[in-house]
Amino acid sequence: MLRKDIINKRRHKLLQAFSLNSPVYELFDCIEHVSFFAKDCDGILLAANRYLIELYEFRSEDELIGHTDFDLLPRRLAEKFRQDDLQIMESGKPARKIVELFLNRQGIPSWFLTSKYPIRSTQGKVIGIMGIIQDYDARKDLFAEEPELRTALAHLHDHFREKLSIQTLAKHCQLSLRQFERKFQERFNLTPQQYLIKLRIQEACEQLMLPSQTIGTIALDLGFYDQSSFTVQFKKQMGLTPLQYRKQYR
Question: What top-level class would CATH report for the domain 144-245?
Answer without folding.
Answer: mainly alpha
